[in-house]
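Researcher: Structure for this, please.
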Amino acid sequence: MTAKFLNILTGINRPSAPSSGSMILVNDLYGVMPETHTTFLGREPVDQAWQAVFGQLIALSTIKRPHGPHFEAYMDELTCEVGALIEKIQPHVIHAQYLGFALSQAFTRTASNIPIIAIAHGPDVMVAERSAWEREGLNEVAAASAAIVAPTFALADRIDRLTGHQFTDRLTVIPWGIHLSDARVRDHPASGGGPLALVHAGRLDDNKSTITAVEALALTDQPHHLTVIGHGVLRGHLEQQAVELGVRDRVQFEPFLPRAELWRRLPHFDAFVGTTRGLEAFGLVLIEAQAHGLPVAYSNLPEVREILGNTGVPYTPGDPQSLATAMDELGRDAHHRKALSEAALINARRYDIKTTGRRLRELTLRVAS
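Model: Predicted structure, token format:
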């Protein structure tokens, strides 16, 4: 290997498209690493525009199977396929996205003397906290890794506990980031007190707890309007709840938007609402909102508190009344919203994807050498 050039093998065992925060992150991340050739393993269908940042994108052919009686056979087949690819690609380093998930386990079982850096994303830690079986997988990948990357100290602490403090010295915190240069600050100043145009974006599932925002609308003193952008299994339930709570005319549901479109829309809102009630690895969409000058009401979780601190309005996770109070607080005080908007812009500047890429590349060089 030359002093600087890196040949990295990585992947996420999903369709290769910008369909989630993790997929968008890896696309951004490997696109800003200089002097690096990245081979990405994903699944069909492949978004041809999305794959452009990778040196090569390979769609895995092993049929994916969920946990159950056929999972071990699936793991054997996947491991065989991954092993053949490693032999062919001969990477300097493997980046195992998601601790303990199937593709990361396949990497660890076939890497031989190729060093591995494991990168935690949140769902991997969440399932390991619920399941002893998943925890075994996480520990297997952690044990085989030369370094373990987490985006916050709070998430690193959770990983440290799950691995019995065996790999504390391997844990490294590298905060995630976004393309700050592409963000456009909202072009209308905070107006006086009154109802707000609020926005929430993300997966519509139990952990993201969008229902907290819908229920909060029914408890506010002011008739705020909420736009929910995203897709997920709970979409129908959320719409029904809005009807039953008498706020359907104040909630607008929109499908998942490509990031460029989401970013174009963000400056037209007064504030962003984050609603996760369980584990949140980082909260990248909150930084996206801040980069556009939006005040943020956030669920007061350790990981989110670490990245936002006093630059947003915290409320009790999963508590609609607490969020309703935060919404009304933002609605009543335009001066406070303006101060939060300014603080948001300053805070967002700490999370540039170029910094994330540089730090991960430096760590990768150390591990590879």
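Researcher: Any notable elements?
Model: The chain is about 40% helix and 20% strand. The two ends are 9 Å apart (CA to CA).
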